[in-house]
Amino acid sequence: xxFQNPVFIPGPTNMPEAIRQACYMPTIDHxxxxxxxILHPCLEGVQKVLKSDSAKIFIFPSTGxxxxxxxxxxxxxAGDKILAARNxxxxxxxxDMCQRHQLDVQIVETPWGExxxxxxxxxxxxxxxxxxxxxxxxxxxxxxxxxxxxxxAVRRALDAAGHPAMLFVDxxxxxxxMDFRFDDWGVDIAVTGSQKGFMLPAGLAIVGFSDxxxxxxxxxxxxxxxxxxxxxxxxxxxxxxxxxPPVGLMNGLKLSLDMILDEGIENVFARHTRIATGxxxxxxxxxxELCAASPDVYSDSVSAIKTPEGFNATDIVTVAAExxxxxFGVGLxxxxxxxxxxxxxGMLTDAMMLSGLGVxxxxxxxxxxxxxxxxGVAAAQEFYRHGNKA
Length: 390
Prior knowledge:
- With 390 residues, the chain is of the alpha/beta class.
- The chain has helices at residues 17-23, 33-49, 64-75, 89-100, 118-127, 151-161, 211-216, 229-237, 247-263, 265-286, 314-324, 350-366, 375-384, and strands spanning 56-61, 81-86, 104-109, 133-139, 141-142, 147-148, 166-170, 189-193, 204-209, 289-290, 302-306, 329-330, 339-343.
- The protein has a 7-stranded mixed sheet, with helices on both faces. Strands 10-11-13-12 form a 4-stranded antiparallel sheet.
- Strand 12 (329-330) and strand 13 form a beta hairpin.
């Protein structure tokens, strides 16, 4: 692998040099007011990215997985019933975490490549007359399959059923890259991490809680110590963490948020949509298909590309790394060996994406796939020319 080449995995993403330098800072007293000048702009900036006026933001030294655990342990009790669909590897892992925490998960098995079945959610919620379901899990962007789900539709399902369950959303590979509306969608807990849309190294779990989720904390009995948001809130009030904070990462996050908000959050989303659309044009020119079942669920942060039957898609990732020093993502779970993934989120431009498409083409031709060298690159170039937004 070459450090000179950008990466095209769906996280960690490429890191702007300015953010890398911001993370590499001198030691400060993390219990002094100096840290507060880093901490509070981070909390305020994340709230803006979530498009929320009210979400309580918590940032832990962890990853998105720690963010999931934060949401679960602070609001639920052993035996509580949860509703979730399994439509990819990351929804599967969230379900597994709930089961390990002795939660009763009602699973809606959903084909990998399809979005969340909001209609099925509504049916189940309407049948739950006693409101035994305490939370509904929704993976906004399933990173394994390149599938975006309609969170607004899940909220409508809850409302149509008149159900009081909380709505937990995994936005790890969407927040900061794709439109996310915490308030408008009635999200109760949103989870993300530092290493995707925020363009940082892995190491921060970033979580938003609604007022409803905050009220649920008092009655939750699952054990929590490191991820206790009550302890964290007390620390914030004193410009601190309840333990030693990751000061460098927080300083990097502060700059990342400045960069995202300076570019304009809608412009960030439009850039991701444009780059992703160019990738989709390339895939079509190659004669291949996406794992995502239909255009309405196409992800703007990662594309999972199916290879012909009998071909091991993992070979593309292996050869790209070994021969060309470039990183793509392998297929996971049910689609392992059937797809390879191109991440197109975070710090990325049209020109950078063209380099990734060019290498992917060379590798596929090297491996004997029936693809014309340059075809996908040309299709993407035609789309990207003059900043095409259509």
